[in-house]
Amino acid sequence: MFDRRLLVHFDWLLFALVFALLGVGIMGVCSATFGGQSRFSPLAIRQISWAGLGLFAMIVAFAVDYRKIERLSYFFYGITVVLLLLVPFLGSFGGGARRWIDLGAFSLQPSELAKISSLLILAQYFHLVTPPQGYHLRALIYPGIFIAIPFGLVLAEPNFGTATIIGLVAMTLVFAAGIRLGSLASLGAAAGGLLPLLWYHMKPYQKQRILSFLHPDSDPLGTGYHMIQSKITIGSGRLWGKGFLQGTQNRLDFLPEKHTDFIFAVLAEEWGFIGVCILFLLYGALLGRLLFVAGKARDRFGSFVVLGGAAIIFWQVLINVGMNIGIFPVVGVPLPFLSYGGSSLLTVMLAMGLALNVSTRRFLF
Amino acid sequence: MREARIAPLGLQDPAPPITVRLGAIGVLVFLTFCLLILRLWQLQGVEGENFRALSENNRLRLKRTPPLRGVIYDRRMRVMVDNRPAFNVVLMPEDVRDVPTTLSTLAGYLRDPTLLNTSTLPSDLRRLPYQGVVLAQDVTRDALVAIEAHQVELPGVSIEVGSKRMYPADGFAAHLFGYVGQVSPRELERFPHYRLGDILGKFGVEKRWETSLRGQGGGQQIEVDANGQRLRVLGEEEAKAGDSLVLTIDADVQRAAESALQGKEGAIVALDVNTGEVLAMASRPAFDPNLFSRGIRANEWHALMDDPLRPLNNRAIQGQYPPGSTFKVIMAAAALEKGVVTPATRFHCSGGLQFGGHRFRCWRRSGHGSLNLQQAIAHSCDVYFYQVGQRLGIQNIADYARLFGMGKPLGVGLDHEASGLIPDAAWKSKFLKAPWLPGETLSVVIGQGYVTATPLQMAVVAATVANGGTVYRPHVVKQAIGVRGEVTKDYVPEVITTTKIRAEVLQLVRDGMRDVVNSSTGTGKKAKLSDFVVAGKTGTSQVISGTRGKGKNMARQYRDHAWFIAFAPYDVPEIAVACIIEHAGAGGGQVAAPAVREVLDAYFKITRGEQRQLSDVR
């Protein structure tokens, strides 16, 4: 069954970039959870096993011919919606929201899976439906409905960060699919009109985050303090950083989630501006490679899947780093490959597996 | 979608037409990353030196102020549980160069080295950096002055004003109020918004109403110098005090109940029959909650845990005892309601009843002669109720007992409330894998055998008979009130169920209970008050079957429990009381009835104070 050509045409560059980013992530989690004695804290060890599991997931997503996966998109989408509907009943609490489904040994965030399944279903739609004059608003009704369901369910959890990513990835795909510029403008206007509605439905803690972004003094003990401390942490790394495990600021109580949402600050403190530039080089090379593969794919489904994976990574990097350096409000979006957490790592690894899949099979048929 | 072209699966597209926009996306990504890098250069390059200095001195710190915990009042707004200021010695390990020397210097000024709590010292990894460690709580004024005066020798040591929870002396209502303590690592995992060193309720009302009582912590964002001394306050958030609670108990009734139990083991519950409000909930022996709020020491904790009398148990809701003859109150109502006897039905008691090859004895060996139901209640005749039990059958007995709130927790809102047990055939085959025996019905009907109840449940039974058949949910909190005295939550009476038993049936049961106390031959005469008609029912529950453990020389654990349940006044009932005294070695009428009398007496002193003085003069 195994086709030897899969090995010959394997996209080693993409694989190496993913592997390097995983390594940086494990280092970052080690630093952020460093207890002063053993080099590997329990959380770091868990992250290593998550990385192993992620590699396995990537291989699986790579091995199955993606045209089979395309035919199963509706199936994946259906399962995800059912899981999301189950979250309010089976979910366990964490940080004030029900997001996790406990599976015994580990727990799963269906909202993370929703990123992949909405990506698959959109890619399939844009593959099958190709109006010659480009998409205008009416042609976007179905994709709109496809996205609105998981988006609304995730938003209701409440998981504002993941819902934002789902929305942004969908918009990226719509843009790349060739939506007419007039329709794009009306979509933008509609989204702008919905903002006050969104504000009205936000939880108090979410509003507080936005407010303290606009006025850092309004919440000196909570988010405002975190944002100032995050900036101090990053800035104190200066050009060369303080060195691995030498960060002093990251040991401060500036955030309870420094190994998840604020891992970038920890890395920036220890590796400095040079280290951060290398990190951006890695991300940039990965995104460049993904865009290249998206352009070379053999069919539209492949293109859109790879582009969607790139969109997930790009938007998460932008929002997470923006929050760390104080240009965006605090939104719970993990840094791809780097933040501690199994479900989010699994999601990007699945996306990368699909990209490898498309990249390698462009030579096969 | 008319103009849409459907491409069949598997066929290759002519060319993926998205490459144009991919290029645009690539450029956008590149520009965005450039912007991020520019911002990072601003932080790490341009302002880096400044931020490095800030991080090296760790000059920004959060100093948290815990919220003031709500006060607990009794129903007449008398302060029961309060806070008082306490001075704590706090160490900031990051500011200390030589911890052992500082500690020994400090121990000298405290005069008592045992006050120093060194278990949570800097080695504790759970401690977050720049979070002070409380070394000694509630130090004396002398120690305070000494430490303040020698501040120079004690870098990193400071005095912080905290508050300490103050409970009434002698374990007054200790099981009801509960206690607070420092949050444990396990609790920290369950409640992420708490921090190490926070205080939270661990038991009783303090635990169940934690969210109301706690309030919201505040703090200051401060800038400090290299020695950890405060330079200026950058931002401040005031702590919000927690809500206060008005309990349903009346301190005077509670005190009477506790003094009636003095030196004994047992419990008393008093209820308002028309609302389910708990007027008193006493359990003895008790403990001193102040030990916990101070931080209980290991030897004190072990002494409490190892005490065979289990002083930490709230017997009023956790204790499960066979209800004995107090159960006959329900049986009498069931018998009349089911029509297995009428008020005129008479049975003859010769001191026992032959049944299934076994003689079931009446507590009065010489027998009661011929009597009707009302007399059987007044004299607590076992033989009459054996007859009733045979005619009712176990299922009816169980159904009626459950109707009165027995066999499951009543939902009083305190932890560890026991369910008691109402057995029936289904229960026995499920848990004991054996069929129900007819003889067991005769044990159950007089409140023996497998039946158990909590004192709270028996108080509810008395209240339900008294108010004409409404089972109210017993509750202990009347209101939550905010800082400015406004009512933030009102706890209104809640009806669990109504028994729907005919009024004349309950009237006859009440008449029987009146005779228990007021007839010259009743079993509960010691509960009688001179100016109010009390109605009640005695009970003596066997701990081991077969023998009646009455002798004082019997081993304690084999002696009978003494029960008394009552309500008053007989004609317009207001209060119901249940009392159990463990291993009393005497009947309920001898030991428990006088205790209930004291509680009722205290209640009428409060509610009818002036009226009663007049009657005393007369």
Question: Would you give an account of this structure?
Answer:
Chain A is globular and about 55 Å long. The mean pLDDT of chain A is 82. Chain A is mostly helical and 365 residues long. Chain A has one domain (5-361). In chain A, strands 1-2-3 form a 3-stranded antiparallel beta sheet. Chain A contains 14 helices and 3 strands. By secondary structure, chain B is an alpha+beta fold. Chain B has 2 domains: 61-112 and 131-247, Penicillin-binding protein 2a (Domain 2); 251-297 and 312-617, 3-Layer(aba) Sandwich (Beta-lactamase), CATH 3.40.710.10. Chain B is built from 21 helices and 23 strands. In chain B, the strands form 7 sheets. In chain B, strands 2, 3, 4, 5, 10, 18 and 19 form a 7-stranded mixed beta sheet that branches. In chain B, a hairpin with a 6-residue loop joins β22 and β23. The model of chain B is unreliable at 1-16, 122-126 and 614-618 (pLDDT under 50). Chains A and B meet through α4, α8, α11, α12 and α13 of A and α1, α2, β1, β8 and β9 of B.
Question: Secondary-structure blueprint of this entry?
Answer:
The complex is a heterodimer of chains A (365) and B (618).
Chain A: H1 5-8, H2 12-32, H3 42-63, H4 66-71, H5 73-90, E1 91-94, E2 97-102, E3 107-108, H6 110-128, H7 141-156, H8 160-176, H9 181-201, H10 204-214, H11 223-236, H12 263-296, H13 300-324, H14 342-361
Chain B: H1 19-46, H2 48-57, E1 60-65, E2 72-73, E3 79-91, H3 99-110, E4 133-136, H4 141-149, E5 157-166, H5 174-177, E6 179-182, H6 185-190, E7 199-203, H7 204-208, H8 210-214, E8 218-224, E9 230-237, E10 244-247, H9 251-260, E11 266-272, E12 278-284, H10 289-294, H11 298-306, H12 315-318, H13 328-338, E13 347-349, E14 352-355, E15 358-361, E16 369-371, H14 373-379, H15 382-403, H16 425-431, H17 438-445, H18 455-467, E17 470-472, E18 477-481, E19 487-490, E20 495-498, H19 503-518, E21 535-541, E22 561-568, E23 575-581, H20 588-607, H21 609-617
Parallel strand pairs in B: 2-10
Antiparallel strand pairs in B: 1-8, 2-3, 3-4, 3-5, 6-7, 8-9, 10-18, 11-12, 11-23, 13-16, 14-15, 17-20, 18-19, 21-22, 22-23
Helix pairs in contact in B: 9-20, 13-15, 13-19, 14-19, 15-17
